[in-house]
């Protein structure tokens, strides 16, 4: 929810299709924005792969088969990449076609399907709690507080839907009203339902015997309600289809916006004149997602997905602090140094807490790093004047709310395994090399061209909205 609030101010103040890429580019520059964008694209690709493979498992249970029965097992490829999933590709094709068709048709589908899905969720909660066994909650929690944080970091990607929603701000009629309601409201509802379903699931069956591929369907079979697994599987399929649709809609517009800057090939920025949607970007993301979904098991994907998500959310919180406290020509050099120092101390102390938590959890470490976090936030709060106030809607309790968001994201990052950090580092290094060889030059040329067309004065007012929004939409129109 802290990350949602940070996103909300940007989505209202800078309502363009680029989401966090656009926000980071405005405040921190092209390089940071591109590195973040590359990780967000990876996040979307892996997210689609995770959901489509889960869709395949629930579809198998709906057909009265085992969760892995429809997958092609190739022993020579190993257990991590040898469970080939053609059904996952089929569902990605179907959803991509629906996303390409038009956003209005997709919205109608989502609305109708969401009503059905809510009924299924209520059925799961009520029927599951009727058959609850409190003994399944002993011991609670079985892996202690550390287990809770580790699980939170792994499942964090389940909440990234609001990032996709923020990319639709350019197509929202009244962003100042609709974006805060949509983002904060949907996150609150999602969190409540997620917790209710998790509680119900753990009370139905011991955590030791959970089926990781189709947990809810199998749970109803275990408690003797075999007929209910078909209702559950159907509801799960609907829910995951909606998730895929929202993700593909958001990621296509995300890639479109990045390609407008030429940091990515401009071919992806093309919007079909008849349909009014970014077909090239949608197809490109579909192809990449399909390759990942076809070969890779869920366990390999989850941690890598969450590390990218947490990294981006931390960057957005930092960017909000920069936006509020730094404006060229307004912020003095002295206050600029104070701002940089405060942010470095906030990030450093948060990282210290994270490392201490992961190593041994000694109270001495907390006694050192936590006061540093508090003092650095207090110093920013009282020692640096805010240089900019939001025009339409702003995050409350700045700098405390974004600072707390940074701290939580840092702690969760510290619980993820080293192998995932290595994969994350390799991908980020690849992005760095690509940016130096291609993205930097293409972005520079495009910016100069845009300044010539729109006027340098108007282009430099990007954080004010208005002129640049109209200029970008004129050059690269998208379905409104």
TrEMBL record:
Keywords carried by this UniProt record: Amino-acid transport, Membrane, Transmembrane, Transmembrane helix, Transport
Bilayer topology annotation: Multi-pass membrane protein
Nucleotidyltransferase keyword on record: no
Compartments reported by the entry: Membrane
GO molecular function: L-glutamate transmembrane transporter activity; L-lysine transmembrane transporter activity
One GO CC annotation: plasma membrane
Annotated InterPro entries: AA/rel_permease1 (IPR002293), CAT_C (IPR029485)
Any Pfam family hit: AA_permease_C
Sequence similarity: Belongs to the amino acid-polyamine-organocation (APC) superfamily. Cationic amino acid transporter (CAT) (TC 2.A.3.3) family.
Protein name: Putative amino acid/polyamine transporter I, cationic amino acid transporter
Species for this entry: Lupinus albus
């Amino acid at each position: 929810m802290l990350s949602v609030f940070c996103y909300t101010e940007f989505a209202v103040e800078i309502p363009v299709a680029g989401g966090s890429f656009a926000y980071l580019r405005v405040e921190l520059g092209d390089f940071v924005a591109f590195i973040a964008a590359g990780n967000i694209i990876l996040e979307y690709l892996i997210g689609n792969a995770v959901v489509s493979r889960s869709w395949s498992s629930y579809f198998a249970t709906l057909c009265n088969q085992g969760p892995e029965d429809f997958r092609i097992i190739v022993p020579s490829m190993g257990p991590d990449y040898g469970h080939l999933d053609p059904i996952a590709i089929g569902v990605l094709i179907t959803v991509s076609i629906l996303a390409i068709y038009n956003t209005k048709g997709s919205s109608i589908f989502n609305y109708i399907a969401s009503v059905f899905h809510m009924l299924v969720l209520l059925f799961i909660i009520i029927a599951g709690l009727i058959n609850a066994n409190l003994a399944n909650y002993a011991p609670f929690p079985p892996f202690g507080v550390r287990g809770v944080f580790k699980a939170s970091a792994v499942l964090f990607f389940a909440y990234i839907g609001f990032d996709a929603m923020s990319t639709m701000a350019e197509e929202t009629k009244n962003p100042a009203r609709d974006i805060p309601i949509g983002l904060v409201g949907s996150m609150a509802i999602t969190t409540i339902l997620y917790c209710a379903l998790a509680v119900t699931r753990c009370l139905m069956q011991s955590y030791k015997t959970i089926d990781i591929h189709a947990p809810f369907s199998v749970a109803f079979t275990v408690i003797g309600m075999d007929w209910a697994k078909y209702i559950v599987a159907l509801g799960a399929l609907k829910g995951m289809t909606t998730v895929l649709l929202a993700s593909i809609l958001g990621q296509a517009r995300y890639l479109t916006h990045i390609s407008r800057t030429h940091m990515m090939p401009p071919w992806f920025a093309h919007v079909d004149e008849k349909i009014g949607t970014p077909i090239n970007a949608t197809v490109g993301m579909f192809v990449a997602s399909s390759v990942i979904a076809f070969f890779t098991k869920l366990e390999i994907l989850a941690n890598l997905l969450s590390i990218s998500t947490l990294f981006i959310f931390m960057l957005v919180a930092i960017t909000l602090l920069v936006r509020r406290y730094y404006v060229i020509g307004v912020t003095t050099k002295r206050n600029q140094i104070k701002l940089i120092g405060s942010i470095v101390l906030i990030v450093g102390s948060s990282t210290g807490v994270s490392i201490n938590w992961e190593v041994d959890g000694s109270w001495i470490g907390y006694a050192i790093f936590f006061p540093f976090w508090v003092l650095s936030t207090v110093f920013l709060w009282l020692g640096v004047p805010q240089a900019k106030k939001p025009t339409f809607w702003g995050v409350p309790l700045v700098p405390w709310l974004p600072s707390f968001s940074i701290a939580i994201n840092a702690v969760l990052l510290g619980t993820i395994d080293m192998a995932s950090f290595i994969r994350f580092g390799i991908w980020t290094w690849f992005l760095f090399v690509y940016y130096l060889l291609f993205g930097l030059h293409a972005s520079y040329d495009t910016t100069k061209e845009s300044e010539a067309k729109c006027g340098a004065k108007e282009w430099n007012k990007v954080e004010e909205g208005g002129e640049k929004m109209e200029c970008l939409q004129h050059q690269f129109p998208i379905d409104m």
